[in-house]
Amino acid sequence: MNGTAIARWSTRGILAAAAAASLVASAPAAPPAPQPTEGEQLIIRQDWDAAEKHYYDRIKANPEDAEALRKLGFIELRRPGGDAVRAAKYLEKARSLEPDNPVGLFLLGRTYEVLDKKDLALRAYDRLLEMGPGRDDPQRATAVHLARFARAIAALERGETDRAQQLFDEVLRREKKHGYVYYERAMLAAREGRTDEAIALYEKTLEMLNRWAPTEAWPYPQARYAYIRENTKYDLARLLIERGENTRAITLLEPIVQTVRLRADSRRRPVAPAPKSPLEGKPDVRFENAPLFYAKALAAEGRTKEARAVLKDFYRSRVGDDWARDEARRLYKELR
Fold first, then answer.
1. Which of 83, 101, 174, 311 is least crowded, fewest Cβ atoms below 10 Å from its Cβ?
2. Angle between helices 66-78 and 84-97 (to 10 degrees)
3. Which backbone phi and psi does 51 adopt, to 5 degrees?
4. Whole-angstrom distance, CA of residue 202 vs CA of residue 233
């Protein structure tokens, strides 16, 4: 599927082809997609106000236009400063008209996640899994594929690790290079104390992230994966430090420490944050604690002066977690 077709699919069906490359590679050739409609072109350009007006006019003309309702829900989810509650109302109305539309079900699942209505999100995803990918319906197949991944994350959060692993296996059968799956499995192995396996999986994650990326980020929990490379290297380095492999850890952490310094500098010049879309959320930035572990690795290699400089810079900054800065201050004093 070429870029134009992906754009068409991601707007007309609303689903970004997050797994398009591997999904379509094994599918029979499809006829050329028609050109995007006026409303779809507005969505592609992210002209949210004009797109909203376009689809709202359609609703005024036909209040039971389920496709227009789904588009309005999608617009609310994607636009900066959008309203997830309003998105839910549009999508619930669309579902009352077309209960098993796969795009609508997936969008409802994402919306309920944003609204922290976990049980409702699970019901939407589970319904998609019950429906299955069908035959000769790429939009439905993609919706089910994305729902499997979302359901796997939910299973992890509920402690249902066997269920999560089963769903991850199904995701990998369609998309062998899915970097997010390797990342989740690496974190799970680390939590369970399977250090050697975790290290191998983090290394595999970095390899896959060089070979795979979702066409668009929004179908996935953006806050969870916004800094996946930095967090992967940070987690991997911490495990290597535990095993005494400090030189490798230093190599991984050095560029991240530079990034953290830049982030700290930017916070000394406060700027009003730009509005976010409901799907963005607060990103996972645990890698901001990297200077603490970088300093520990330096100290372990006898580079005490460098370690103390890093620690002092870090504990005086506004980045990282409180516990990490407190430990950095304590370690700085110990290394005198």
1. 83
2. 160
3. -65, -40
4. 8
What is the tens place of the pLDDT at every residue in 100-145? 999 999 999 999 999 999 999 999 999 999 999 988 899 999 999 9
**CA-CA distance, 59 to 65, in Å (whole number)?**
6
Q: Does residue 185 fall inside a structural domain?
A: no
Nearest alpha carbon to residue 114 among 15, 219, 12 = 219
Query: Closest Cα to residue 111, out of 148, 82, 145, 133?
Result: 82
Q: What is the CATH classification number for the domain harbouring 62?
A: 1.25.40.10
CA distance 162 to 82: 36
What domain range includes position 301? Answer: 221-268+280-335
> Which two tokens mark 193?
């104390």
pLDDT tens figures, 240-281: 999 999 999 999 999 999 999 999 998 888 778 889 999 998
Q: Tokens for 334?
A: 């110990």
Give me 148's structure tokens: 């499997």
Distance between CA atoms of residues 308 and 81, nearest Å: 42
- For residue 318 the two structure tokens come to 């506004």
- The domain tally of the chain equals 2
